[in-house]
Amino acid sequence: MVAPSSLRTFEVLLLVLTILLQIAFHQIEAASAKVEYLPGFDGPLPFYLETGYVGLGETDDDLQVFYYFIKSENDPKNDPLMLWLTGGPGCSSFSGLAYQIGPIKFKIEEYNGSLPNLVLRPQSWTKVSNIIFVDLPFGTGFSYAKDVISHRSDWKLIHHTHQFIRKWFIEHPEFLSNKFYMGADSYSGIPAPAIVQEISNGNDKGLHPWINLQGYLLGNPVTTKKESNDQIPYVHGMGLISDELYLSLQRNCKGEYMDIDSENELCLRDMKYFQKCLSRINMFDILDIYCEDDSLKNNEAMQRRFLTEMPEASLSSYLTVPAMSCQIYGFFLGTQWANDASVRKALHVRGEIGKWERCYTTDFDHEITSSFEFHVNLSAKGYRSLIYSGDHDVEVPFSSTQAWIRALNYSIVDDWRPWLLNGQVAGFTRTYANQMTFATVKGAGHTAPEYKPDEGFAMFSRWLSNVPL
Ligand SMILES: *[C@@H]1O[C@H](CO)[C@@H](O)[C@H](O)[C@H]1NC(C)=O
Ligand SMILES: *[C@@H]1O[C@H](CO)[C@@H](O)[C@H](O)[C@H]1NC(C)=O
Ligand SMILES: *[C@@H]1O[C@H](CO)[C@@H](O)[C@H](O)[C@H]1NC(C)=O
Where are the beta strands (DSSP E) in 56-129? Predict the structure, then answer.
């Protein structure tokens, strides 16, 4: 038997416990919070970082979009605000933050099992702009949903990004007057122009809050999905296949290298030879070393993000550690870092999230075959755009980007010319009517600012402040 007084004590204890639990719960559920320290980075962060979730669903445990927000290190009140969406589809925008345009990067040093270190990137685009790095579609990075797979398609990605940004603004009204830009690269050349169109249409329809949309920038963007057809003239021009093979490919395949008739043996034979020539070429930067990326072969990525238990610490999906001289070594370090419990705590990542993979590209419904028409529509509405190409990328060669821009039929207002940095040619540029600027970044790979940070920063900051490149 329990005496009445101890029953009373028990009740009081239970009440206190419930209140404590509620407080703890609310702390976990806080939508966003400032991050002052990051494991692996020495001392307090010298820039403003906030991370958090924006919920798009009916309940608190569904459709949660994770983002990193970094304020401009210059004048956050007056500098533009950019929403950045890395490609894939399904690569975390942490890729843009840590490897390309954000204020921190991984220190490339030998991995010995302890937490990878972070250092500052002097050419961060956050020196001149506020940037939100968003993890979408669902299942990407630290974003999650109850049923991830049913929320992964081009149009869902577009609508979710649009909903995300309006909700984000409701929580950050102090940024509503800043100029707003959409930034994206690689595969996101497909959804990003449609996202811009959705934001624009939403403004026209009177959706709240109104967004001060100015334009967009895209790096080596997939646009027509015919990019592979441009790879052959490109690699011929770069000296990777012989004149004879190029002539034979043209003769036998008639310019169609993607959808080849299985009876066209001559074309198939030429394609096999072509593939042999390219088999040990780094397609993201033909001058960089070739490294086998076994993280892409691992199907474990497909089982992530289903509100599962935290996985045991492991070498993530990497079966072997890439060589330190490989670009993907940084991806390896990032994967170790993002799966460390102290890092997740610092980033306010919710406990139920499974293993972090840089990219989760499968289980995605590809609905849009070309974003060309969106560009046509957007320029008719007067938005500014910067389309840039790292000119050593085979994945989306600069020539294929030039081809669709040419097909827009815009008149040229500042014709093809070199653009300079410190007296050296950093690339070539051409400006069209309808406020579209095309620029190459000379010697850069698929993600241009990653390979040429000084040039990338100069290009971005000049374009942002309306200065000719
Ligand atoms: C790993 O290397 C770092 C420096 O890069 C060092 O601080 C740390 O003590 C090393 N850890 C182990 C387990 O050797
Ligand atoms: C472009 O705009 C027109 C007119 O508003 C619209 O009918 C069309 O669907 C748009 N194109 C795309 C690809 O959204
Ligand atoms: C560009 O011009 C060509 C030839 O006149 C025409 O067929 C095409 O429809 C035009 N493209 C656009 C986007 O207006």
Answer: 64-70, 81-85, 104-106, 118-120
